[in-house]
């Protein structure tokens, strides 16, 4: 199977990728002493099947393809141009 490079955001709050409003009524009365979520970014090669499996993982907040970037060399202006 062919793989592509993906960026995976793991979060320990159980957000999930399938339901953005999964907190439900129980999250309304959540205690203020709840530990802050910990995020971890991973860049990995995945097959389409792996992506679908990760999307069902409640600790995965997002999965995306990396955005290609091209760095443009700066333009150096001469003194006469000022």
From TrEMBL:
Highest rank taxon of the organism: Bacteria
Protein name listed in UniProt: Uncharacterized protein
Biological source species: Luteitalea pratensis
